[in-house]
Amino acid sequence: MLIPCMRNSLMYGISGGLGIGLAHFLFTSNVSKSTNVGMASYIAVMIGTWGYCRYHLALERAKTYELQKAMHNRSGSSNIRLLDPKDV
């Protein structure tokens, strides 16, 4: 099973780290410090986007659960089930 949101977080982290590290190198011409800045920004962007995505995924799942519970109470039948598009 895949970890939700991890692919996008890695892609944004890698591109953000490369971009910020390269921009820092162009302004300072210091390879060692630019590498550290690029690595730190990679980690910060990756964790930030992963947390943001997971938060919105949890909100979406809570809304789906509430809708399923409301439909179950309204119709009285338990065979109605809505699927989350991210789980398919």
From TrEMBL:
Keywords: Membrane, Mitochondrion, Mitochondrion inner membrane, Transmembrane, Transmembrane helix. The keyword Hydrolase does not apply. The keyword Translocase does not apply. InterPro entries: Cox20. The chain crosses the membrane at residues 9-27, 39-57. GO terms for biological process: mitochondrial respiratory chain complex IV assembly. It is found in: Mitochondrion inner membrane. GO terms for cellular component: mitochondrial inner membrane. Belongs to the COX20 family. This is Cytochrome c oxidase assembly protein COX20, mitochondrial. It comes from Plakobranchus ocellatus.
